[in-house]
Design goal:
NDUFAF3/AAMDC, cytoplasm, 3 helices, 3-stranded antiparallel sheet, Mth938 domain-containing protein, alpha+beta, 153 residues
Length: 153
């Protein structure tokens, strides 16, 4: 038929999407397990199966994306706000791991921890290298874990 294009099915596995109006990259894993954080170094993080290199990232069962502090006005102090975690919480996680940076410069106020606990979510607040280790251990055990990780100071 002329004038019609064949519709291709969506690719299987992970794929990168750039939503309209957003500069951050998303990676989705259509298997709804928490993705492994494959590597971490100063200013760089890689999530297994995703080609994007993140400076700061959010991960949840089935995906990951850049954690852009400008979206919520986050700064090192007062630090991580409930608004930074809403997206991860909505993914149905049971545990959230917060990486405070390599030197733990990123603060986490009590109101943020309270927000998670009031939603029935366990929370771990750690130096980022330790946070990634703990996150990966939980993910490997099949826990519905999410997190936000700051990879510099």
């Amino acid at each position: 038929m002329r004038g019609r294009r064949a519709v291709r099915p969506p690719p299987r596995g992970r794929r990168r999407l750039r939503p309209a109006g957003q500069g951050s990259r998303l990676c989705f894993n259509f298997v709804m397990s928490s993705p492994e954080i494959a590597s971490l170094s100063w200013g760089q993080m890689k999530v297994k199966g995703c080609s994007t290199t993140y400076k700061d990232c959010k991960v949840w069962p089935g995906g990951s994306r850049t954690w852009d502090w400008r979206e919520t006005g986050t700064n090192h102090s007062p630090g991580v706000q409930p608004a930074d975690l809403e997206e991860v919480v909505k993914k149905g996680v049971k545990t959230v791991v917060i990486g405070r940076g390599m030197s733990e410069a990123l603060q986490v106020p009590p109101s943020t921890v309270d927000y998670l606990k009031k939603n029935g979510i366990d929370v771990l607040v750690l130096q980022t290298e330790k946070a990634v280790e703990e996150y990966n251990a939980l993910a490997a055990r099949g826990v519905k874990v999410g997190g936000v990780f700051h990879s510099t100071c």
